[in-house]
Amino acid sequence: MVWSMPSGNPNVVKVYNQFHKKGFDVFGVSLDQEKEDWVKAIADDKLSWTHVSDLQYWSNTAAKMYAVYAIPANFLLDETGTIIARNLRGRRFMIRLTKCSGLNKMT
User: Fold this and answer.
1) For 35-78, how does the pLDDT look when each residue is reduced to its tens digit (9 = 90+)?
2) Rounded to an integer, what distance in angstroms lies between the CA atom of residue 33 and that of residue 53?
3) Which of 2, 6, 28, 87 has its CA 20 to 30 A from that of 43?
């Protein structure tokens, strides 16, 4: 799951494009308040994964459930849905992702 600002999307897009065919996926949760802003950002950044929003800003149900108090935020889940890492960036994210079961032969 990813909560991100537009400036963080190019990195997420790069990882998604590199690893999606090998089982990696992204589930985006928006903290937008206006549907038009949310939909425009998805289109502008060419984000092709699943996106959800209840348009409740910081009162977003998922943000509360996962204790998201700042963005960007991300959670790396394994194939069973268990959170195995949180808020990884850059090289640390790539290293952890390549160690995941089923994705360990990515190049």
Assistant:
1) 999 999 899 888 999 999 999 999 999 899 999 998 888 888 88
2) 9
3) 87
Residue with tokens 């939909």: 39
List the structure tokens of 99.
Answer: 């160690």
3-state helix, strand and coil shares in percent for the chain, rounded to the nearest 5: 40, 15, 40
**Cα-Cα end-to-end distance for the chain:** 22
Cα-only R_g, the chain? 14
The whole-angstrom separation of Cα 28 and Cα 30 is: 6
Q: Do 53 and 27 meet the contact criterion of CB atoms below 8 Å apart?
A: no
Q: What is the DSSP code (8-state) at residue 72? A: S
Backbone phi, then psi, for 57, in 5-degree steps? 55, -130
Name residues whose C-beta falls within 8 Å of residue 73's C-beta, 6 or more positions apart in sequence.
2, 3, 4, 66, 86, 87
Given a contact cutoff of 8 angstroms between Cβ atoms, the answer to whether 78 and 86 are in contact is no
- Which residue is associated with the tokens 């348009």? 55
